[in-house]
Amino acid sequence: MKLTLFLLAVVAACCVSAAPQSDVKPTARYITFIDEAGVEQTVDTEEEPDEDFLEELDKNDMNRYFLFTRNNPTTSQELINGDAGTISQSNFNHNHITVFVVHGWISNQESGLNPAIRDAFLSVGNYNVIVLDWGRLARRNYVTAARGVPLTGRRLGYFLNFLNSRTGVPFSRMHLVGFSLGAHLVGNAGREVGGRVARISALDPAGPLWNLNSNRIRSSDAVYVEGMHTDGGLMLSLGIGSAIGDVDFFPNGGSNQPGCLTTSICSHNRAWRLFAATVSHNHLEGRQCSSSTQITLNTCRGGALKMGNADMFKAGSGRYRANTGRRYPY
């Protein structure tokens, strides 16, 4: 009997330690992963930031905005903050919902998530899809990029204000989609406009340096903030394992995604792949969970809610687990 109780206690302790964390998780100094180009990259959370570059960033807005619509689904039109002519001469339509897609670290407008999410939205309706390229900052070392995220996000907020004032597109028809560091970036953009944008989709928000960061994304940054956590383990993970929004989904428990056998970046990137699939198919559903242990053990039995998708009137609260497959559309 004593042996049985001991074994049960050990199992329970293991389950709790493996669950998505509600408190601060430890972070190793060095986190190594393979980027989209197959190049090994290392996050050094104690590396010195590039102060000269950050000073340049403080003086110059480096954000670039590329518009795609059903009239130009693959060839972009560049919009310039403060230049109304670039908007009036483009295919931007103020009657359509405007979606911003924001990449993460060591990426730019050419990164794989941009066409995946763009094509998903344009396949289901008429949208203004605007890809933010903040690659000049994103391709610096991780500490420098993280330091520059709040300012870069506020500048995106300035652009949202510009669109609102010049075209009349309401904040209630704006949807910000950010991946990794880009999730915190769009949070700062939403904060800049007083949390008035309709929706933020935060796809596996970056974890290193962000657990105690007051500039990280939070639920007040939009009318509805949804987090999706796919690589939120305790150590050496790239995402935050704790809830950040009104609703937070933990696909397959929130780490070690199906088919991702060796690399953390695979689970991390699964967030934007899952999101794009849900925009196209709206097929993945989660069940509300009452504890981290339920998320880990796949015993959530609460109400159902669709994960991701393009619904601008989505609402809810709490943590959810959604189970997926290993291949598109998951």
Automatic annotation (TrEMBL):
Keywords: Secreted, Signal. SUPFAM superfamilies: alpha/beta-Hydrolases. It is found in: Secreted. This is Lipase domain-containing protein. Coiled coil: none annotated. InterPro entries: AB_hydrolase_fold, Lipase, Lipase_N, TAG_lipase. Residues 57-309 form the Lipase domain. Belongs to the AB hydrolase superfamily. Lipase family. Residues 1-18 form the signal peptide.
